[in-house]
Amino acid sequence: MMVFIENPNLLIKEFNEVASRVQKKAFITIGIEIQKDEIDNLISYRQELSQLKEDFKKRKLENEANLVYCIDNSLLALQYELQMLVNIKEDKMSEAWGNLVNAQVIYGTVVRNYPFELESETGYLERLANYEKLLFPNLFFQSAGGIIKKSHCSICNEKYGKCNHLKGRLYNGEMCCRVITEMELEEVSLVDNPANKHCRVLTIETDGKKIDIMTLREVESENDKESTNAQQCITAIAGISSKLEVNEENNNQSNTEK
Q: What's the confidence (pLDDT) of residue 1?
């Protein structure tokens, strides 16, 4: 990776080659073992990128560190896409949905922060949106609203709003997030277009049976996954999960910090 410190343009060239190779395997017909191998390759390569970003940060090369963040997270989105396809083949539909949403959120941060003009800013997001339309049923979502009482900036740890850092922007290779440490939950509503697509209704009850919306299979009562999904909803709204919190530009913000 030392050569990339001397010439970051080579990193862009290599990224394009890696991304092209991965996208050729992002089809439902590709062998699951091939897709799993590619996921492992991506994880290994991204570990090297993480070290490269730290090297740029130490040298105070902010633009280069931000570039590595965008490249790393572009590949992470592709990794989530492959994992979604693997999940579907393994009949893990909830996990497949979660990985699709992760890919959408992660690549959204890249589009907003990439230091150069992208050939197609929305092309990959449209690809992910098509997965959502073609592979998954219509879902029902929840949105939580509340009063933010305490929060701070993830970059400088100052009280949020008192510094010059902006949520969703990159600073020396790190994403600025509003870290919410205290929040009073006021309500949870059913919505069509949620800030967090992880926060969804999992089951419906019909004829005395509880049915999984994703698979239409009957599920047992007291399904542990339901509490997990509810916690995901509250956690992301509260900003504990920084990557999801970044995407909450309009989170029913009756939220008022005191």
A: 56
Distance of CA 243 to the CA centre of its chain: 6
Q: Are 104 and 128 in contact (CB under 8 A)?
A: yes
Contact yes or no for 146/186 (Cβ under 8 A): yes
Torsion-angle region of 153 (φ positive above 0: left; ψ -120 to 50: alpha; else: beta): beta
pLDDT at 195: 86
The answer, yes or no, to whether residue 121 has pLDDT greater than 90, is: no
What the block records as the tokens of 72 is 């790393």
Looking at this protein, which amino acid is placed at residue 206?
Answer: T
Could you tell me the pLDDT band of residue 118, with boundaries at 50, 70 and 90? low
38-54 pLDDT, tens digit each: 999 999 999 999 999 99
Cβ count within 10 A of residue 252? 18
Whether 76 contacts 106, CB under 8 Å: yes
Residue 73's nearest CA partner among 62, 81, 61 is: 81
Nearest residue to 200 (alpha-carbon basis) of 209, 186, 212: 212
- Global pTM reads 0.82
